[in-house]
# Entry
Amino acid sequence: MTYNHHELNSQMADCIRFLSAEAIEKSKSGHPGMPLGMADVATVLFTKFIKINPSSPRWFDRDRFVLSAGHGSMLLYSVLYLLGYPDISIDDIKNFRQFGSKTAGHPEYGHLSGIDMTTGPLGQGITSAVGMALAERHINAKFGDDLCNHYTYVIAGDGCLMEGISEEAISLAGHWKLNKLIVFWDNNNITIDGTVDKASSVDQIARFRAAGWNTIEIDGQNQEEIASAITSAQKSDKPSLIACKTTIGFGAPFKSGTSSCHGSPLGAEELSAMKEECGWTYPPFELPQEALNAWRKAGEKSLDKWEAWQNKALRNAMFNDVINNRLPQDWDKDLNALKQQAIDEQIKVATRKASQMCLEKIVPAIPEIVGGSADLAASNLTFVKGMQTITADDYSGNNIMYGIREHAMAAIMNGMTLHGGIIPYGGTFFVFSDYMRPSIRLAALMGLRVIYVLTHDSIGVGEDGPTHQPIEHLASYRAMPNVLVFRPCDVVEAAEAWQTALETADKPSLLALSRQGLLTLRKDCKQNMSKKGGYVISEAKGKRQGTIIATGSEVSIAVEAKKLLEEKGINVAVVSMPCTELFDSQPEEYRRQVLGDGFRLVVEAASPFGWEKYCGENAEIIGIDTFGASAPAGELYRHFGLTAENIVETVLKNI
# Structure
């Protein structure tokens, strides 16, 4: 390990190293190894290449940077401070990992303006970056180089490349020839438990080449080689992997090159020895003025490009509407007409088909919409007439064929949303949302408008059997914060769910849609009742003696049971609850009126978990607390008691 601390560039890299090491030491928690090892890469990238403007941090045509190895967050925080981003101070650096701090343990989107996505779960960053790079090419194809022409840079480690989602990501990036995507692999041969060769013998260079990537191998501590590699990668017609051979904890004399500096502070003794080794004579959190000045100057290197872009962008109204995700005026005019048509004609279709009918009205009306499916478009009904599929030869389309890659689809949709200018939706079977869960959770955490079209929502799948019948999924997603989970009962509710999802910019929405045909139950559509989460869809004829609460395909069964009860002189109301999250946000008085004071019965073809909070003392739940079975749907509904007759019997027993 050699240092020439008299050279300004080396000193600038050391600014990252010591800010990172000192902040981690102060917090007694963190991962110093990667920031120390990749400091030279970050220095070259951010001071010589990356197109940003700290004073306008959300500049649409800025280069994107994703720290996929999010545990090395202090590298990013140090860089943002050094470049002069106005919302990070030296006190924020000192407050690393403390309660309420902007400098959280892993980078969190929205905490600091220079963070382009929340990272930490390994593999998510590199995959979402594919979405960002695809979004850049898509917007470029629509508006040209003057308005959208930038790179997406990623720092990823061995953990990111081991996670299975990365295989889906790199294969799609190569297939789409996303040449504006450049990934720096921190090739340090270390994971938490030891050396990489204990768990993997993959030739990563061969792997990326096989997937259609350009690959470059360099010394990750040699700034000249780093600069040359970036210049070369920028000229490639493929996505690029720059394999940076680094030493984890570079500069720490006793712990560098070992897993002991991966996830723990260096310790006072090692930090002191490191300062001596590097000739660093400055007190904690103090920096050489010449190096800091050079960093701040680097933060201003793209001001001329920013000004030129501003002059062009401000003159293009359509471009500004798209990048700011402003829905066109009267975008839902035809969607509202569809609702009335469904009522007038008493349309009976599966809600997956109802969703497609909605998309036929939505897609032509909203330029930002980009749909897709994980090789199930024919079943999810996510593709509508007039859509064009995005390819490596033409990025201007509005449909994506993800192949059988649910993991990547969900993360790529996150990346497209983060990039801006796109409102994505993607489809698969509801049961396969398990593959998407980490990305859905990140979308919720970041507050992103991503829409999941998840069909075959219950035992109504029938003969495909328990492997394809989602039982616990509704409860699990309802338990996830900041997600809207819709289970519509007919065409009108499906349209209302789509309207609400598209108008909700700060959270993802999940549409759980049926395979079996469902009657149109709504009598009017003047108001979006699904926005309330739950409402009385069929009121009791006389004084209400009880309430049946149902969702999706079970609402029509509940309405049928209500009619049978009326014949027996029992007056109940039926409540449709398409979105419990929205219902919970309503005023208490509204919720009480909807649920009523008498006996309550919940009916849903899924786990009863979570429904208890709506029940009160006098209540029952008809649900499913086992896995499903392979049989015709009607037979399964009878087996699990999801019939009008069983509802009637249950109500009579309790009233």
About this structure: The CA atoms of residues 209 and 215 lie 7 Å apart. The radius of gyration is 28 Å. The domain at 8-309 is CATH 3.40.50.970 (Rossmann fold). The chain has 26 helices and 18 strands.
